[in-house]
Amino acid sequence: MADVVEIAAMRRALELATRGPRSRNPQVGCVLLSPSGEVLAEGWHRGAGTAHAEVDALSKLPEGGARGATAVVSLEPCNHVGRTGPCAVALIEAGVSRVVFALADPGEHSSGGAERLRSAGVDVEGGVLEAEAREFLAPWLAARALGRPHVTVKWAQSLDGRAAAADGTSQWITGPEARADVHRRRAEADAIVVGTGTVLADDPALTARDGDDLFPRQPVPVVLGSAPVPAGARVRAHPRALLAYPTRELGAVLDDLFDRGLQRVFVEGGPTLASAFVSAGFADRILTYIAPTLIGGPRTALTDVGVPTIADQHRLSVDALQRLGSDLLVVARPLPESESH
Ligand SMILES: NC(=O)c1ccc[n+]([C@@H]2O[C@H](COP(=O)([O-])OP(=O)(O)OC[C@H]3O[C@@H](n4cnc5c(N)ncnc54)[C@H](OP(=O)(O)O)[C@@H]3O)[C@@H](O)[C@H]2O)c1
């Protein structure tokens, strides 16, 4: 069982992990403890291609300095020979006698570090402060499992499924409570994505606001499409630098966002772009804000989502229904292929 000193060291390792950047690689921290429980060295991972947290910590000690030590790491030491070599082997070679970690490595190629350490006679304990580590790494874990950022597609619609009036005006369909909910969710996202159509029609600021104030955490604004973003567009005054991709290749864009460490993507439309994300199977979560109003006309919330016949419909399951003032929020996600027909 991990003792209080090891648990405190794990808290520190989780703190150290936050110093590393978000990237395709997880943020990991490591503390090396002497047999009597003193901190010998600390380390953290600084992103793809650099030393992993364990190796970073070991590098701060002289040769033989980690003999008999305990390594406290926020993620199971990896077992793969990537650009940096397996951490499990580095720990074995350094003579570490015990390894305490929080979360098992979910990587197909990198897991198995605990087994490798055990078979070399190292005492290994996993699951220490696991819930904290899992919460901290949740965006990375989700993106890791998908192989791309996790995508939420959001739209606001009238009860009859319209996203705008016939002339293109859509501000505001929903009430202040629903809009405040959107702003809170924007502040939790890493990137907020719209198509050029929305930029040209609405000139949105794409900031996350608490009333008139900006939330301290702002998503990176992203605009997709070949039409240029006008020089005076409000999104250019966003506190984070605008990423404009003059392309319709959603997969390539998601790949690039993942490389930039943007793991939670919030797509805010309009209907053309939202439909493209749904068609491509990239909408992991759908948020629909439904206002008790009727608009009619041609501007539907979604356009073509690749459903020529009813057998091809995108079946969803509802995770939550929430009343926001006079509006309703439906949170849904796609049913797995096997359950959708
Ligand atoms: N109710 C709501 O929640 C809501 C939200 C946002 C907007 N709106 C309303 O929606 C209207 C604008 O909607 P919209 O559909 O014209 O604009 P949009 O979806 O914001 O933008 C469409 C543009 O996105 C670009 N794009 C990038 N990747 C694409 C892909 N894979 N497939 C297709 N297009 C891609 C294309 O730009 P290029 O042609 O430049 O290449 C396309 O013309 C406005 O009336 C706005 O007020 C409503």
From TrEMBL:
Keywords, comma-separated and alphabetical: Hydrolase, Metal-binding, Multifunctional enzyme, NADP, Oxidoreductase, Riboflavin biosynthesis, Zinc
Catalytic activity: 5-amino-6-(5-phospho-D-ribitylamino)uracil + NADP(+) = 5-amino-6-(5-phospho-D-ribosylamino)uracil + NADPH + H(+); 2,5-diamino-6-hydroxy-4-(5-phosphoribosylamino)-pyrimidine + H2O + H(+) = 5-amino-6-(5-phospho-D-ribosylamino)uracil + NH4(+)
Entry annotated with the keyword Heme: no
Gene3D superfamilies in the record: Cytidine Deaminase, domain 2 (3.40.140.10), Dihydrofolate Reductase, subunit A (3.40.430.10)
UniProt cofactor note: Binds 1 zinc ion.
Cofactor requirements of the protein: Zn(2+)
UniProt-listed InterPro entries: APOBEC/CMP_deaminase_Zn-bd (IPR016192), CMP_dCMP_dom (IPR002125), Cytidine_deaminase-like (IPR016193), DHFR-like_dom_sf (IPR024072), Eubact_RibD (IPR004794), RibDG_C (IPR002734), Riboflavin_Biosynth_HTPR (IPR050765)
Protein's UniProt keywords contain Ribosomal protein: no
EC number: 3.5.4.26, 1.1.1.193
Segments forming domain CMP/dCMP-type deaminase: 4-125
Pathway recorded for this protein: Cofactor biosynthesis; riboflavin biosynthesis; 5-amino-6-(D-ribitylamino)uracil from GTP: step 2/4; Cofactor biosynthesis; riboflavin biosynthesis; 5-amino-6-(D-ribitylamino)uracil from GTP: step 3/4
Stated family: In the N-terminal section; belongs to the cytidine and deoxycytidylate deaminase family.
Role, per record: Converts 2,5-diamino-6-(ribosylamino)-4(3h)-pyrimidinone 5'-phosphate into 5-amino-6-(ribosylamino)-2,4(1h,3h)-pyrimidinedione 5'-phosphate.
Entry protein name: Riboflavin biosynthesis protein RibD
Species this protein is from: Microbacterium nanhaiense
